[in-house]
Amino acid sequence: MGIPEVDNFDIVEVKFKGGRKEYYRNVDFLSLTTGDPVVVDVPSGHHIGYVSLQGELVRLQMQKRKIRNDDEILRIYRVANQKDMEKWGEAQNREIPTLYRCRQIVEELGLKMKMSDIEYQADNSKATFYYSADDRVDFRELIKVLAGEFRIRVEMRQISLRQEAGRLGGIGVCGRELCCSTWLVDFKNVSTSAARYQNLSLNPGKLSGQCGRLKCCLNYELDTYMDAIKDIPSIDRPLQTESGPAKLQKTDIFRKLMWFSYNNDNDWHSITCERVKEIQAINEKGKKVFTLQYNEASEIEDLAAKSTRELELLDKKFASSSPKRKKKPRPQNRNSGGNRNQQASNKPDSKPNKPERQQNTPQSANQGPRPVGDQPKKRRNNKNRNKPKNPEANSGQTASPQSQQPKAQNASPKRQNVQKPKGNDGNAANINSGGAKPKPQGKKKFPPRKNQGPNPTKPENE
Question: Of 42, 130, 375, 450, which one is least surrounded by beta carbons within 10 A?
Answer without folding.
Answer: 450
